[in-house]
Amino acid sequence: MIRLVPDHSARIQRTEKVPFTFDGVALMGCAGENLAAALMQAGVLHLRNAPGDGAPRGAFCMMALCQECVVFVDGQSVESCRLTVSSGLVVKSRR
Amino acid sequence: MLIDEQGQAGGQVWRAKDRSILSAPATPESRSGDNLRERLAASGVRQMTDTRVWQIERQGEHWVIHTLRNGAAGRLHSRAVILATGAREEAQPVRGWTTPGVIGLAGATALFKQSIRLPGRASVVAGAGPLVFFVASEIRRLGGTVAAVVTPNTRADWLARLPSMVARPDLLWRGGRWVADLMLAGVPIYWGHAVKSVSGDDQVTGVTLCRLAADGTPLPGDIGIAADSVCLGGGLAPSTEAAQLAGVAIRYRPELGGWVSEAELDGSTAREGLFLAGDGCGIRGAVAAELHGQIVARTALRHIGQASASDPALERAYRRASRFGEAMTVLSALRADPIGLATPDTIVCRCESLTRRTIEVEIESGAVSSNAVKSGQRAGMGPCGGKYCQSSVARLIALHENRALSEIAPPTPRPPIRPVPVSALAGDFDYDDLPMPKPAPL
């Protein structure tokens, strides 16, 4: 099939995968990758529960405005879209 | 000194890759972004990255900029400040838009540019203007699948903008390629449609579309599409909060993205030593914003007593780029009724999980301004600061009170304009230092 927009996926080279955890679940992500992107890639979309109705929420704006992707790292609550993956990173959710 | 919220300069359009990307094919955005970052590094400008500005105030002859970096608060004093706050993305609330797997259309571009990742395996891409086709095209370029493109614009809307788009044949050609590629690949493009609801409990499983009448009202006849992710955009709006804190008035200019900060073409404002550049004073697009930055930098240099002549050729180029950008902004605003697809039980304020019904009850009980709804129900008082509900709340007030949107100002922004942990401020402030602004008018 003719493609006017070529598929570049095979030409992207990433850093090595390193282990990290999300609520105790072992995951792998590329070292230095944006944490919200790495969680999405690992299939973890449900990052917290909404106030009020308790419904699941996940990363939304990806630019540190909406606060939906906030997680706990080292006891601090931070937007996961402003963090990066490192080996042994321990991420806790607000679920 | 350059203060940037992100780890590397570039904002949203020229957003830099994160450290996980060792190599990747260049794009027009990555090339111009890398070029700008190289020139910035060579310029000797000091960069404070990963730094949030949460308050700006005037003290004597100086502006005081309150910052937050690595959990520590700081202050900078300056005679001249240029605010280049850019745009935020609007979102149209529909049932299920809070489901994990729904991300903003501009958010999707951040994911592509920074981490070169896809939002899911099969994505519905929905929104107005050229951004929807850029996002769909990037998903294809990165090896993903676009389940459908959904846009409120019709082909006739686009044809009507052609005269202004001819000002930038390069961009017109690039956009034409995106659409042609999607059509060749057999991706369904739903012109004149909108996403009406998103299904799925803890993850998206699909969307329901509807056709829109010329005035944006949904028409009967639903279309269901299976997808595991949705990129949902409602157009761009200028980020005005920082300029408002500094005392710059806002004006309703729907053709420029909604409420815009009042500034002259050269960036000067009613406040001495405070200048505005780029999309924050009206959405005119990245090309115009870059030229505007050069114009405004000259103005700021003159203010601090350095010789820097204005450049008529630069201003002409800016006007030309603005015509293209403004035509795109109008396309993005067309047919977009910010609240028309929200059912009574649709969440409008994500931070406080407030539904359309709850907000309407508050308005009916007499809360007829954005500040009153904020005080009464906390819509706009949550951690996002009202960025994702203020347009919807204003629209609901306009509908109930039969008033024009230009009469319903967004809620008064309050410091901190970005979340600040109390621990970062404790010990740093005396009681007398705390800013005590006048109460917001209800």
Radius of gyration of chain A using CA atoms only:
15 Å
Structural class of chain A: mainly beta
Task: Say which CATH homologous superfamily of chain A is assigned.
Answer: 2Fe-2S iron-sulphur cluster binding domain, sarcosine oxidase, alpha subunit, N-terminal domain
- The topology string of helices and strands of chain A comes to EEEHEEEEE
Neighbour order of strands in the largest sheet of chain A: 3-2-8
User: Mind telling me the CATH class of chain A?
Assistant: Alpha Beta
Task: Give the % helix of chain B.
Answer: 25-40%
Low-confidence parts of chain A: none
The CATH topology of the largest domain in chain B is given as FAD/NAD(P)-binding domain
As for the number of domains of chain B, it is 3
Residue-averaged pLDDT of chain A: 95
Coarse morphology of chain A: globular
Q: Strand arrangement, largest sheet of chain B?
A: 9-16-10-11-12
The number of helical runs of chain B is 12
Biggest sheet details of chain B? 5 strands, parallel
| CATH superfamily heading of the largest domain in chain B | FAD/NAD(P)-binding domain
Tell how many strands the DSSP assignment of chain A holds.
8
Query: Could you say how many structural domains of chain A there are in total?
Result: 1
**Assigned CATH class of the largest domain in chain B:** Alpha Beta
Supply the CATH architecture of chain A.
Roll
